[in-house]
Amino acid sequence: MTPKDFPTAIPQADPRAGYLVQRTAIDAALTRVFEGGVYILGREVEMFEAAFADYIGVSHAIGVGSGTDAIELALRASNIGAGDLVFTVSHTAVATVAAIERAGATAVLVDVEPGTYTMAPHELSRALRMTRPGRPAAVLPVHIYGQPAELSELAEIARVHDLRLIEDCAQSHGALYCGEPTGSFGDVACFSFYPTKNLGALGDGGMVVTSDPTLAVALREIREYGWRDRYVSARIGINSRLDAIQAAILGVKLRTLTADNARRQTIAARYDAGLAGLPLALPVRRPNATHVFHQYVIRLADRDALRNRLGASGVGTGIHYPVPVHRQPAYSGRLTCGPSGLGVTERAASQILSLPIYPQLMDEAVDRVIAEIRAFFT
Ligand SMILES: Cc1ncc(COP(=O)(O)O)c(C=O)c1O
Hints:
Bound molecules: pyridoxal-5'-phosphate
């Protein structure tokens, strides 16, 4: 049996629970959309865009079809494409790199910090000193697991090298760096509303945010065939529009995002206390940041044995991610990386384990997970 064959009494994530807890409000929002007769963009999307921009503290939010599209559109609106280098990480969802390539640019992969798994600023500096074909154009850090990357250092490097700073906030809705939300630091930032995210739709969805009015105009045009006026394409665009149903659902869920993140933090603190003293590494918190625990990731050499044991006991776990992007069959051997290689990324991939975490997870379930892990070590 493999872990996926075991019955899962405590799932690793549970977007259905997120729906059920807000069922009345979500069902009412859906009825409003169904009866309203506008199903793509329109007022529902505009209302959610305004609320989300306000939450992040930016001037513009542009709803799109997915987090992957958000990254592609952010790059295209920034005129980044063929011949341009975008510095990012390999310890991420493949979507980050896929979107860079879809925009026509070249990804340069930089290693991460061993504790936080976010882009290591000194590795970015080293990668920028290397000469290679292409023009350095952007830095694209990922706030992986809900913890902001070291934004002040990365922003300073971007400023010195005249690079755009594009944040991948797919996992960091509501996370703070020096008291300010992720997504408010970059020239432009990208969110995913995949159902398991801290702010999750009941389908696909994404958002690009920026305070640059020119970029905002370009993003609105590119998401809809490049239209400036209806049926008249002023530029080359695609079809990547947030739909009204998802916007209405997200509008309901945005109201509880801060409380949901607080619950994730409480669960994380419970895991910290319950797992203290065991021979495994607990999540490292950046002191100047607020981690929103999209994932609670522990680390140990014997990861697969623990995962099997938990799976057999009905505890779902995940690995985010088991294969770094540069080792994926579709990318292997053709991606560029920084001069020090990706050793931290590769070691992490073989040792990380994501425990169950979502706002509706009960304390009793957390305690059961802790007990199972403690039993594994006795
Ligand atoms: C770090 C990161 N970037 C990008 C994405 C892509 O988002 P989506 O699945 O909405 O396209 C995801 C989500 O899986 C992600 O976790």
